[in-house]
């Protein structure tokens, strides 16, 4: 993202924390101010400020880890200085004092603050996702309204293809709503996991710093004890060289021996304690490494969150595609409506053509060339029926395409389930980090008890030695200050935890209220949709019944007209046959060329008889067409389809 590209790496600042000219606290403040400026610039340029909180946490963790390394190196230098002091005796007192001052300067150096969590940024992300969900719900409602208006405009004779398309689009919209709700829940769970992981990480880092401070303090105490013992040895040597009282010298020698024994015991105890603390420090560093690993997991969660946002955008694009499909369906319904009107017009034209055919049948005896035109018109009607069948096949193809799109949406839903399982795995890792946190707390408690017991042992072994008593008093004071500091840190962490818990509760309450509001709106929309659907189905049924009655009336009138035509045609055929019989029974006049005239009349009568047979054949074809039309109408009543779509 743009923020990651513009933020400088923290390695340079972390490396100079222990050996630079300026204090580490000032450099951290300067780096933090620079990062804030970069963050503001990135928000103004690209609007992608949601990832800055995690990036700052990762950079601060790297700086803390390098500061820990510098402190450990300083502790190693102090140990070497102690070894040199032991070898050289009292000659290295100045070095010990310098090391003590150096440790005090380090202990007085400003403490690093734990990186703050990015809860406001996560809340902004949640609000943006809720806004996107509301926008998607609005679009879905608008899409349903468009579909309802399209259904209201659709004529009753369009068949079931339009209803199937509308049902498929409604199913797509419901799946999109469910997907958006699942994405919102997944984002909420990820935000909670992020907050838990960051809290554990910050606590582990702060405890590691506390252990480092304790190690430095113990080393300073050891150096102070060495200095006191060396000063006593110097006093003993001075007394021996001055030749003082033997009794005082013996007492002083005994006292020095006792102090040396106490010092040796104290050194051994402090060395053991130092080794224990170094071991705990190593464990704390390992915990810090686990915290860094948790930071990497946080980055992975942020990446997964950005992927989910991209999927939300994809779902929004799907909603837009569904809107485009809905508008296309509305246009298609309009085109179907125009086609129905055209078919009604063709139906009327066919009625007029039937009337014309009736007239042609009546005049069939006068013109034999009309049979060819009649056949052409019949072929034209068959071609129109075939085109209607082709349109029906196209509608079936489009239905199959919509079914494949439904399968694609189901596949997207399964991908959302896989993301939910990944979120559960991250939750389990956060629980393991919480367990490590409790282990570190237990080790710190054990360390405190160990220090208290060591103080008691030093009190018992010191006796009346004023130097040992001052060491013990110092240890007590430092132990009390450590206890007080620990209580203050614990109270601060507790207050911060309660504040975060209150914020989480407020956020949960707001989300619960918002969810209840959305659910109420959804229930209201469902009730309204059910009522509108029932009303629409009732209107469609009434319109279909009215058209069915109208078609039945037309069929009855056509049957009546056909019966009348058949009756008239039979009467005319009977009259022509009677006249032909009468003419055939007459004796034709035999003028000049009478035989030729007789043959001529016989030929004309044969042609007329053939024309009558052709007319009878055409009448039979019309009866067959009438039966076919009647069968289509009956099937249309059963299937509730237009009669011209019933084969």
UniProtKB/TrEMBL annotation:
Compositional bias annotation for Basic residues: 25-39
Bias (Basic and acidic residues): 148-157, 167-194, 266-285, 296-324, 338-361, 379-411, 424-439, 446-462
Positions with biased composition (Acidic residues): 49-67
One Gene Ontology term, aspect cellular component: cytoskeleton
Annotated Polar residues bias: 365-378, 412-423
Molecular function terms, GO-annotated: structural constituent of cytoskeleton
Gene3D superfamilies with a match to the protein in the record: 1.10.287.1490
Record region (Disordered): 1-130, 147-194, 266-473
Domain of life: Eukaryota
Name this polypeptide is given: Myosin heavy chain
Species assigned in the record: Seminavis robusta
């Amino acid at each position: 993202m743009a923020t990651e590209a513009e933020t400088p790496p923290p390695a340079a600042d972390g490396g100079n924390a222990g050996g630079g000219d300026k204090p580490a606290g000032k450099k951290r403040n300067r780096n933090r101010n620079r990062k804030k400026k970069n963050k503001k610039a990135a928000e103004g340029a690209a609007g992608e400020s949601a990832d800055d909180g995690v990036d700052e946490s990762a950079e601060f963790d790297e700086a803390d880890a390098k500061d820990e390394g510098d402190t450990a190196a300083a502790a190693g230098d102090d140990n070497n200085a102690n070894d040199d002091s032991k070898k050289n005796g009292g000659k290295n007192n100045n070095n010990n004092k310098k090391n003590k001052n150096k440790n005090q300067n380090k202990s007085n150096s400003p403490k690093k603050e734990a990186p703050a969590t990015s809860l406001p940024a996560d809340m902004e992300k949640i609000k943006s996702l809720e806004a996107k969900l509301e926008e998607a719900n609005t679009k879905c409602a608008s899409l349903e309204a468009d579909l309802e208006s399209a259904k209201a405009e659709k004529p009753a004779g369009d068949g079931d293809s339009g209803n199937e398309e509308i049902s498929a689009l409604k199913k797509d919209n419901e799946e999109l709503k469910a997907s958006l709700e699942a994405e919102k829940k997944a984002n909420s769970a990820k935000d909670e996991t992020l907050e838990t992981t960051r809290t554990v990480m910050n606590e582990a880092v702060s405890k590691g710093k506390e252990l480092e401070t304790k190690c430095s303090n113990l080393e300073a105490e050891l150096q102070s004890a060495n200095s006191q013992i060396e000063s006593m040895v110097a006093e003993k040597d001075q007394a021996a060289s001055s030749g003082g009282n033997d009794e005082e010298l013996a007492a002083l020698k005994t006292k020095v021996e006792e102090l040396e024994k106490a010092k040796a015991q104290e050194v051994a105890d402090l060395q053991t304690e130092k080794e224990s603390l170094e071991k705990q420090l190593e464990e704390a560093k390992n915990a810090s490494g686990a915290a860094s690993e948790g930071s990497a997991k946080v980055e992975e969660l942020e990446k997964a969150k950005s992927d989910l946002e991209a999927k939300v955008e994809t779902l929004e694009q799907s909603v837009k595609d569904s809107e485009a499909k809905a508008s296309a369906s509305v246009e298609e319904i309009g085109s179907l409506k125009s086609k129905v009107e055209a078919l009604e017009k063709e139906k009327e034209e066919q009625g007029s053509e039937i009337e014309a055919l009736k007239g042609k049948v009546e005049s069939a005896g006068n013109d034999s060339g009309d049979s060819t035109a009649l056949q052409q018109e019949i072929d034209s009607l068959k071609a129109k029926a075939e085109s209607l069948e082709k349109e029906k096949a196209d509608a079936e193809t489009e239905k199959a395409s919509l079914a494949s799109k439904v399968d694609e949406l189901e596949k997207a839903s399964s991908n959302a389930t896989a993301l939910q399982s990944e979120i559960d795995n991250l939750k389990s890792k956060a629980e393991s980090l919480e367990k490590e946190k409790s282990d570190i707390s237990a080790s710190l408690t054990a360390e405190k008890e160990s220090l208290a017991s060591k103080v008691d042992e030093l009190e018992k072994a010191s006796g009346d030695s004023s130097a040992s008593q001052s060491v013990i008093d110092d240890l007590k004071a430092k132990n009390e200050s450590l206890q007080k500091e620990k209580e203050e840190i614990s109270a601060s962490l507790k207050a911060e935890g309660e504040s975060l818990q209150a914020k989480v509760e407020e956020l949960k309450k707001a989300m619960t209220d918002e969810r209840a509001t959305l659910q109420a709106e959804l229930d209201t929309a469902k009730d309204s949709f059910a009522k509108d659907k029932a009303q629409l189905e009732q209107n469609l049924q009434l319109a279909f019944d009215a058209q069915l009655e109208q078609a039945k009336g037309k069929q009855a009138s056509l049957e009546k007209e056909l019966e009348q035509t058949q009756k008239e045609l039979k009467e005319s055929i009977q009259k022509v046959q009677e006249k032909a019989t009468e003419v055939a029974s007459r004796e034709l006049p035999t003028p000049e060329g009478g035989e030729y005239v007789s043959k001529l009349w016989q030929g004309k009568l044969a042609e007329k008889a053939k024309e009558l047979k052709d007319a009878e054949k055409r009448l039979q074809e019309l009866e067959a067409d009438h039966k076919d039309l009647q069968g289509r109408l009956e099937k249309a009543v059963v299937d509730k389809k237009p009669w011209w779509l019933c084969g």
